[in-house]
Amino acid sequence: MENSKKYFSHHNGQKSQLIYVLLALFLGAFGVHNFYAERWGRGLVQLLITLLTGFVGAVISSLWAIINIFTIETDANDRPFNMNPVAKYICGILGIFKYLGEIIFWTFLAIGFFTGSLSHYNFSSMGQPKTVQSSYEKIVTPNETIVETSQTIN
Predict the structure, then answer these.
(1) Hey, which residues does 138 pair with through a beta bridge?
(2) Which of 29-33, 130-134, 145-149 has the highest average model confidence (pLDDT)?
(3) 27, 68 in Cβ contact below 8 A?
(4) What is this structure's pTM?
(5) N or C: which end of the chain has fewer CB within 10 A?
(6) What are 65-84's pLDDT values in tens digits?
(7) What is the C-alpha separation between 137 and 119, in angstroms, rounded?
């Protein structure tokens, strides 16, 4: 047990800034980085924003986590992190790109949903009922007889 603690904090109780920023980068929408820093209230708020909004609030929580990467340098007990400024800024910049990618992804998904262009993938658009489509195919067997099939899709 003692060996596992040394990876997460130093002998004087300092927590690793590298672990903090990596948690913020990958699990920041769920507030995991704040739980690591013993900021239970902030972590719980981020978790609830994400879960109670059906993951739509993850946009807000993710932005909050990216801001935390750049601004938070102590844990809840005002003990400074074991500093790693290179990791802090690299993860922060990656977080910005990740956040912008998420915004672009969700924007295009919303546009596709509301314009009906996702109907090709069997997503119904704006609650419109699906139409019944029929198709007929002619199949030629090796004996040169023609078999006609019908298929109805709901």
Answers:
(1) 148
(2) 29-33
(3) no
(4) 0.67
(5) N
(6) 999 999 999 999 999 998 88
(7) 23
Q: Could you give the 3-state DSSP secondary structure of residue 150?
A: strand
- Count of beta carbons in the 10 Å neighbourhood of residue 73: 13
User: Which residue type, as a one-letter code, is found at position 11?
Assistant: H
Token pair, residue 118, equals 């996702």
DSSP-derived secondary structure letter, 141:
-
* CB within 8 Å of 27: residues ≥ 6 apart: 33
State whether the Cα torsion 119-125-127-128 is positive or negative. negative
Asked whether 98 and 25 are in contact (CB, 8 A), the reply is: yes
Give 135's contacts (C-beta < 8 A, 6+ positions apart).
150, 151, 153
Determine the 3-state secondary structure of 112 from DSSP: helix
Helix (H, G, I), strand (E, B) or coil at 38: coil
**Interatomic CA distance for residues 46 and 148, integer angstroms:** 59
Share of the chain above pLDDT 90, in %: 46
Between CA 33 and CA 26 the distance in angstroms is 9
